[in-house]
Design a protein that fits this description.
Elements lengths: L2 H29 L7 E9 L6 E9 L2
Antiparallel strand pairs: 1-2
Length: about 60
């Protein structure tokens, strides 16, 4: 395996996930007028087709 190529590809994927996820969360908060109304309970599930990968992260976003 080419470690450098793998690392760059992984970083590119994670950057896209982070940027697009933030945009979608901001869109929903704005469109649903949720700003300043408690917390938004979040769950992110990561899977990879053809592998047993199933990683879940849960948390809250304070809507200030």
């Amino acid at each position: 395996m080419d470690e450098q190529r793998f690392n760059m590809s992984l970083r590119k994927f994670l950057k896209e996930v982070g940027v697009t996820s933030q945009q979608e969360i901001e869109r929903v908060v704005r469109e649903e007028s949720l700003g300043g109304r408690g917390k938004l309970k979040m769950k992110m599930v990561l899977t990879a087709e053809g592998t047993p990968l199933h990683h879940m992260v849960e948390g809250d976003i304070d809507l200030g």
